[in-house]
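Margin note: ligand = magnesium ion.
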Amino acid sequence: MLNPITHRWILHNEMQTLDWGRRFADFVEPAMVVSLYGDLGAGKTTLTRGVLEGLGYSGRVKSPTYPILETYSLARLYFYHFDFYRICDKNELEDSGFRENFGGLGVCFVEWPEKAQDWLPSVDIKININILDNQRELIVTALSKKGVLCLEKWQKLGW
Ligand SMILES: Nc1ncnc2c1ncn2[C@@H]1O[C@H](COP(=O)(O)OP(=O)(O)OP(=O)(O)O)[C@@H](O)[C@H]1O
Ligand SMILES: [Mg+2]
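Resulting structure:
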């Protein structure tokens, strides 16, 4: 039986969102799927940028609207950043290359996973970003054994 872990953070500004991502990067593992929920402008891309920086990437992080997938070949792993905001049907999703990349060894971060409905393979960690005036509430939930182990490791080291 999975013992779910949920944890909440308040991030006061963009720097804190980036910093959260940089720290989370240490616990990201190959083949992990992370879904990012939140309204337009909540901070999904900002947080992903922080994770990429934490993984050693120093280039520009584009919002992957067109195309809906940006791929990064990093020292430790392949990183796939999806944004399904504009997905309207399953054919568009198939064209995005998601099937080739999900389930492989790369780590997948997915913005607007709700647009992929139930076509999305199983998610390890779900991140909800809620807009609270000029700060953000982050709610992170582990949904798989791998996700639980990841958050437990971070928790033991003191978030
Ligand atoms: N903790 C925070 N507090 C306040 N503002 C923040 C915080 N983190 C990020 N922001 C701001 O919120 C915006 C987030 O934009 P970003 O492109 O990351 O959102 P997004 O969720 O990816 O949106 P979209 O759904 O359009 O892709 C930026 O303007 C950023 O400066
Ligand atoms: Mg975005």
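The radius of gyration is 15 Å.
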